[in-house]
Amino acid sequence: MINIKSKTLIILPHLDDEFALAPLIKRMSIFKKCDLKLIYCSERIGSTKVKQEMRRKDNLKSLKLLGINETQVLYLNDYLDVEDNILYKSSHLIYKFLKRLLDKNFYPQVFTLNFEGGHPDHDQIAILVNKLKNIYNFNAFYFPAYNSRNTFFIPYSVLRPLKSQENSFISLELKKFCWCQVLLIAFIYSTERFAFMLLFPTLVFKSIFSKYLLYFDHIDLSSVIWNNSLSYRRYKVKFSELYI
Q1: Residue 1 is assigned to a structural domain of this protein
Q2: Of 6, 77, 193, 203, which sits most exposed with the smallest number of CB within 10 A?
């Protein structure tokens, strides 16, 4: 189970993925003795310098809302070149970097996004965390962000696991309206306005009606039918291209 007062490393693929853990990060940041560190693994390094700087500013504003300051954040692209959407091409370098970090500074628990076929970058980082878990024996927890499960008339789900994963998620009760901060995060990210607009209806529903955060304590590669996943259909990444 998650220990909200424990020293924690949060490894996220993109600068905005904190939205999937927002209520938990906010709650943990309240405890001053809780040592939180966030690593963002990829950025749009092919975009202009101005856009890259703007996205980092948006990211830091979002994290400030959750009680996280700049000293707690590490951007992997300050050390490596990792391009958004094709993170798997740098997976070996990312793995070695994270391994060196954990050799120097052990974390009893690590958070990341779930393996769910929603985005190849999410899937690859989940796999890397799982590999590191087997070496360093930390507690790893995986959080759903979005996947190909239909939600009414919408051809995807946000913050809800695949049907094939429903029997293994863990539910953490927080408080009513705990997801409302996600709506503020959506407005903060001027660099990701269109993407959050698509997610907005489900984020509103989540903010009003849910006081729970769902997560997993393991990943299951067999739970995702890869050819039906967004990672394959939308981003054209083959399962064989991931670093397993």
Answers
A1: no
A2: 193
What pTM did the predictor assign?
Answer: 0.97
CATH number at residue 55: 3.40.50.10320
Can you tell me the distance from the alpha carbon of 198 to that of 230, in angstroms, rounded to the nearest whole number?
15
First to last CA, the chain: 25
Residue type, 164: S
Read off the pLDDT of residues 172-195 as tens digits, 9 standing for 90 and up. Answer: 999 999 999 999 999 999 989 888
Between CA 168 and CA 48, with CA 89 as vertex, the angle to 5 degrees is: 110
How crowded is residue 57: how many other Cβ atoms within 10 Å of its Cβ? 14
Residue in the block written with tokens 């690590």:
110
Domain that holds residue 130: 8-241
The whole-number pLDDT of residue 152 equals 82
Distance (Å, whole) CA 159 – CA 101: 29
CA-CA-CA-CA torsion for 192, 193, 199, 202, nearest 10 degrees? 130
